[in-house]
Input
Amino acid sequence: MEQKKTGRWVILSGGPIKRYADIRAQLREEDTIVCADAGLRHAEAMGIRPHLVLGDFDSYAGQLPADAECLRLPAHKDDTDTHFAFREGLRRGYDSFLFCGAMGGRPDHSFANLCTLKAVDEAGARGKILTDGGYITILTDGVLTLDKVEGAYVSLFPFGGDAEGVTLEGFAYPLNDYHMRVSVPIGVSNEQAADKARIFVRKGALLVMVTVEAKV
Output
């Protein structure tokens, strides 16, 4: 692994993105932009020049940018393109990962990307998946403070096993030292009652999903 890098390793995957302006607003000048296969279409749509493109390019038939580093992967491999992109960022010394276009497409790929988010956490790095108007992150054996997002639901799901000692403060539906089971979705569609809310987990991992319902 290379020396630790500053900035984030931002991965554009090939899943649907409806609100490009929200993605652009989250990007920073110091970010390293990585396109995983069809994620290159999103970079083109946003007018972003990626630093790295990678994949087997089974879902992107366009011309690859001449000014970007390119890693062409075999079609038969153990990783998804997105997971390989994460591992490549880790190998290069990054410890902060942002995923865009990682949800809402094929269900198997969406779930695989949640597994990649867990891999980020297990590597001791920070990870977040941006969704349309919201985000997904993961909390393991610790505490997470959330800033309130207007009109958002906050859903919590044990991931990889039950979560023990779950306490929620500043929510419409609080919990105190609760044992959350994988098979009981009690954590769905909570709401913040305070500008800052806190989630505690004594043991285990929680997927934290902040979702803004689309207005019709």
